[in-house]
Design brief:
There is one protein chain. This protein is an alpha+beta fold. It folds into 2 domains: about 140 residues, Rossmann fold, CATH 3.40.50.300; about 160 residues, Glutathione S-transferase Yfyf (Class Pi), Chain A, domain 2. Helices cover about 45% and strands about 20% of the residues. The protein has 10 helices and 13 strands. Strands 2-1-4-5-6-7 form a 6-stranded antiparallel β-sheet. Strands 3-13-12-8 form a 4-stranded parallel β-sheet. A hairpin with a 2-residue loop joins strand 6 and strand 7. Helix 3 crosses helix 4, helix 4 crosses helix 5 and helix 5 crosses helix 9. The protein starts with a strand and ends in an 8-residue tail after the last strand.
Length: about 325
C-alpha cells in the first residue's frame, strides 16, 4: 500500500491540515512545535490502529470536541478515523468498526528521536520497544502479551489483600505460565533473527568492524509451562511480602553488547546512532519476511541526529520504501 494523501481535522494543534504524499519520499518541513510529528502520528493511527504516543482524548485539539483523520491510498481506498470524545470509529470504504480491521493494518517502521535512548533506557523501556515490534510481527504474540498483562494485574491486586492464599492465585498462575512461556519462546526466536544480521548491517551503516549482539536476559530458563508454574509458586513468600509478582517475563530485559561490553557506557554517540539505524533496517527486513509486506517508513526528525555518512546509509537502505519524514531544515534526499 502507498499513501496518496492524509487530511487532519482538529488533530493536536491542526485545525485542518492536508498532505499529498509522494510514492518514494515525502518531506514535512517546519519549525519545532508546528505539528510535524502529529502528521506521522495520524498516519500511524490509520495504519496500525492506535497512536504511538498518547490516548485519544489527549489528541483532540483544545476547545474542540472531536478529531478526524482521512487517508487515501494509491488504490483510491479511503480510510477514516474519528473520535468524538468517547468513542473512536474507523470507517473503511463506508464500513464502520470500533477497531482498525486486521486486513487494513499495514506494517510501519517508525523512527523517533527518543529511540536513540534505547541503548541506555530502563528495562521497561526496552521491553516496550521490542514488544511493540514483536506484536506487529506476530498476532499471537500481541494477543498473548495482552492476556498476560491482564492476568498479571489481577494477580498483583490479589497480592495486595491481607487474606490471599496460594489457592487464590492458582488460576492466575496457570494463565501467566501459559502466556508467559509463549512470549519467552517468541522473544528468543525474534532476538536470534535480529542477531543473524545485526553485525553485518551495523557494518553497512558505520563502515567499521565491531562485534555487536542483542542479548535477551530472562530468568525463564526453560520453555515449559510447568517450569514457569513451579517458579511462580516458589516465589509466593517473596510476592506476599512485596505485594507484587517477582517472577516472570515482565522482568525480562534486552541489552545491546558492543565489543562484548554493554553498549550503554561503551558505545559512543555516533556508534549508538549506528546501532539504532541497523536495528531499523533489520525491522524492515523482518516485516517483509514475516508479514510478506513492504513496510511504510516514518522518520521523525531523524536527520538532525545523523551525520552525512549515516544519512546516506538511511536513504540507501530505505530507497525501495515509501518514506514520510519530518525535519526542521531542508535536507538532501538525493544520495
Amino acid at each position: 500500500m502507498l499513501i496518496k494523501s492524509i487530511t487532519l481535522t482538529n488533530f493536536r494543534n491542526h485545525t485542518h491540515y492536508h498532505l499529498d504524499c509522494q510514492d518514494d519520499t515525502t518531506l514535512i518541513l517546519g519549525k519545532n512545535g508546528c505539528g510535524k510529528t502529529s502528521v506521522l502520528e495520524a498516519i500511524y493511527i490509520l495504519t496500525r490502529g492506535k497512536s504511538f504516543r498518547a490516548s485519544d482524548p489527549d489528541i483532540i485539539k483544545r476547545e474542540t470536541n472531536f478529531y478526524r483523520i482521512e487517508l487515501v491510498s494509491d488504490t483510491g481506498e479511503k480510510s477514516v478515523a474519528t473520535f468524538d470524545g468517547e468513542t473512536k470509529t474507523f470507517t473503511i470504504m463506508d464500513k464502520k468498526s470500533r477497531r482498525l480491521p486486521k486486513t487494513h493494518k499495514h506494517p510501519v517502521v517508525l523512527f523517533l528521536p527518543s529511540d536513540l535512548n534505547l541503548i541506555s533506557g530502563s528495562p521497561s523501556r526496552h521491553r516496550d520497544y521490542f514488544d511493540r515490534l514483536f506484536s506487529e510481527l506476530d498476532e499471537k504474540y500481541a494477543s498473548s502479551l495482552s492476556k498476560y498483562e491482564k492476568s498479571l494485574r489481577q494477580r498483583n491486586e490479589l497480592l495486595k489483600t491481607d487474606t490471599v492464599k496460594n489457592s487464590d492465585l492458582f488460576s492466575w498462575n496457570l494463565l501467566l505460565a501459559k502466556y508467559g512461556s509463549y512470549i519467552k519462546e517468541a522473544r528468543e526466536s525474534f532476538v536470534n533473527y535480529i542477531n543473524k544480521d545485526l553485525e553485518k548491517t551495523y557494518f553497512q551503516v558505520a563502515n567499521h568492524e565491531d562485534h555487536l549482539t542483542l542479548n535477551y536476559q530472562t530468568e525463564i530458563l526453560k520453555n515449559s509451562e510447568d517450569f514457569y508454574l513451579k517458579n511462580l509458586e516458589a516465589s509466593l513468600e517473596k510476592d506476599l511480602y512485596s505485594k507484587h509478582t517477582n517472577f516472570g517475563i515482565h522482568r525480562d530485559d534486552f541489552i545491546f553488547f558492543f565489543n562484548r561490553k554493554p553498549a550503554d557506557g561503551s558505545a559512543s554517540r555516533g556508534e549508538t546512532r549506528s546501532i539504532i539505524l541497523a536495528l531499523k533496517f533489520i525491522e524492515a527486513n523482518m516485516m517483509k519476511d514475516f508479514l510478506h509486506q513492504k513496510p511504510l517508513v516514518l522518520l521523525d526528525d531523524v536527520f538532525s541526529e545523523l551525520d552525512d555518512t549515516r544519512r546516506k546509509a538511511l536513504i540507501k537502505n530505505f530507497k525501495h520504501h515509501q518514506i514520510i519524514l519530518t525535519s526542521v531544515e531542508d535536507v538532501n534526499l538525493n544520495y
